[in-house]
Amino acid sequence: MSDVQSIANKLSQVSGTLSQIQQNGNAEQLDAVLNDLGQLDTDLKTAQAQFSASATESTRQDLVNCRMELHRMASFVSDIRSETAERYRQALGDQKASFEQMEESMQQSTFPEAYQHRQMFKQMDVVSSHLHQLNGAMMDAGYQAGRDQQNGNEAAYTGEHEPNVMSTETDLDTNSFS
Length: 178
Fold this sequence. Notes:
Oligomer: single chain
Order of helices and strands: HHHHHH
Strand content: under 5%
Number of domains: 1
Number of strands: 0
Largest sheet: none
CATH topology: Methane Monooxygenase Hydroxylase, Chain G, domain 1
């Protein structure tokens, strides 16, 4: 199994966890999701460093599939954020303005349910940010794999190989997640 396929499998697991969070509204697994997303970024960088002229079209397709899974996960996150915001408003009712003026410790003790919803909403912002970052990194990796594959094909014709230079810029085209 390739590194990119391992990443795809891990994304599917994280997506399943997000789906469970969406269904039951329980934020207990969010720390694990955030840890997994951080590890996925590291795994992607490792895989990207190993790309060479032997990068295949299937590697590029695996990256496209990963990005599709990220898009699906972003949809879960958006739904969870919306549902959490609604629960937050329902838990506070007409006390929302006074709640938001309180110190955090007072919020937690006076309105624990609303406080939990607010914390979950904030955590989902962090998850969303990780997803956008991973999407950009995967776009870069796909570009690099294609470039390395093309350079390998050109080198086969000329007998020369260009050095493998990794991109340090991240294309954060967030329109693909909107």
